[in-house]
Amino acid sequence: MKEIFKKSILILAVFAIWHTVCELEIFTAYILPSPIVTFKTMFNMTLSGELVTHTLISFKRIFTGYALAFALALILGGIAVLLPKISVYYEWILEFFRNIPPLSLIAILVLWFGINEAPKIIIIILASFFPMFLSISKGLTNCDIKLIEVGKIFGFSKFEIFYKIILKSALKDIFVGMRIGFGYAMRAIIGAEMIAASSGLGYLILDAEELSRADRIFVGIFTIGVCGVLIDRIFLFLIAKFRVLRGE
């Protein structure tokens, strides 16, 4: 309770400073709208359904690309454990793409697929895949060898050892990777929508900039931040629950 109170005080202090700066007219309303104007704009955009529509479109893209990236990371992570010799054939490709900023590919993706959903989904996959893959691989390969030996004693197959022992012991790292990966997915979709989209929160911010509507820009930024924090809390809750179940 005290922690929540401290955080609330800090948030209120930030808004108080923001309001004071606007009242003193240190910056013009064109550059820095007051919090009252910003929240009034947010309320009107929510009421009209515009903000909700853009938010839902962005998160539909995020969850689609994120789910595909997670499935791919889990499959390749599992292959690295069950069939380690095969990883030699694809690890250099992963290393190559890991060092390429996803947004640098948006131009060629738009050229290939046009301004539709495919380029944005691919950007999200590339952005969120690698942190999840690295964390999942770490969790799967760091399983206690004694547990694996016990599984062999009980006659478990390779798949049973992977599913019943290795995968369960790696859940903490999997959740951590999912948490980090989702943050990368959020950053990627906003960048992609600002370059090649006609809807979504990234497009909303870019469109507001072209209209010189700083209040709408702040609305987009606040929406991204609040949604990101809420989803991050969900991941932290799952990680904490897992630690409790394991007695950590």
Task: Describe this protein's structure.
This protein is an all-alpha fold and 248 residues long. The protein folds into two domains: 1-32; 34-245, MetI-like (MetI-like fold, Orthogonal Bundle). Helices cover 80% and strands 0% of the residues. The protein contains eleven helices and no strands. It has helices at 2-23, 35-48, 50-82, 91-98, 106-113, 117-141, 145-153, 158-169, 171-195, 201-210, 214-245. Helix 2 (35-48) packs across helix 11, helix 3 crosses helix 10 and helix 7 runs antiparallel to helix 8 (158-169). The protein is globular. It starts with a helix and ends with a helix. The model has no long low-confidence stretch (mean pLDDT 84).
Summed up:
It contains eleven helices and no strands. The chain folds into two domains: 1-32; 34-245, MetI-like fold.
Biggest sheet features? none
Radius of gyration, taken over Cα atoms and rounded to an integer in Å: 22 Å
Helix run count? 11
CATH class of the largest domain: Mainly Alpha
Second CATH tier, the architecture of the largest domain: Orthogonal Bundle
- At CATH level 3, the topology of the largest domain is MetI-like fold
Which helices and strands, and how do they pair?
Elements (H helix, E strand, L loop, with lengths): L1 H22 L11 H14 L1 H33 L8 H8 L7 H8 L3 H25 L3 H9 L4 H12 L1 H25 L5 H10 L3 H32 L3
